[in-house]
Amino acid sequence: MARKIFNLGSLVFFLFCSVLMHDAQGAETDTPEKVKSLVDKVVQSYGGREAIERVKSLFIKGKITAWTPVDEGIYIIYFKIPRKLRVNIAYRNYTEDRILNGHRGYEGTDGYPLPEVTGIRYLSIVYQYKSQDIPYGLLHDAYRLSDEGKESVNGMPVEVLRLEDKGGPPMKIYIDLKTFRIVKISGLFSIGENETSLSSEFADFRGVSGMEFPFRFTNYAGGQKVARTLIEEYKINTDIDHSVFEPRPPLPR
Hints:
This protein is an alpha+beta fold. The protein is built from five helices and 13 strands. The protein has a 13-stranded antiparallel β-sheet with strand order 6-5-4-3-2-1-13-12-11-10-9-8-7. A hairpin with a 2-residue loop joins strand 12 (211-221) and strand 13. Mean pLDDT is 85; it is low at 1-29.
């Protein structure tokens, strides 16, 4: 179980670069003007309303280097509206798969069909899905937002917003006050009386079909650095068959 949580941290965000999924539940209606203004700037920094809403699916491919345990491999994400996600990592000695298909989650290593998961393992997959929702969700008032004040990420001043809804764990986003891009995201999870987090930091933003995506990110689990992912390719609105999101082997790479 411990290895699964740490390896999940190795995935948790690049998913942000997918940037789309909408699961609006219980949005805050009296968001302060300061937060609204900040959200508007974030939306513009990723390409604006039309660019964000245009994306309906993503295929993402890169290379991952993990430190917990030490390994490296190929990193694949399939993403499709509504509420479909698959993350597949082929390490040198084994593979990992995580799937969200509607309100059901699946997770496993090497073997198929993948077993269905519940509890924190399911919520961790939902968090991966929610990570992709951030610009789209902000655009559509999908979250209850609260201002957590200013901090710094790698020496950069950032504004921190807390995001909550009924569909997953609370999240924090860290917004660069120069570019208004999200340079870090954290999800908060309760395990008994303890709380842990999954986090990612993002860098090397580049334009792809009118949108901005990070091509490098570093992932943490419980504050421990677990992996670095370098993205090689984004394909926007490519056709992804619904069978990809079933608990079976993924399509050929």
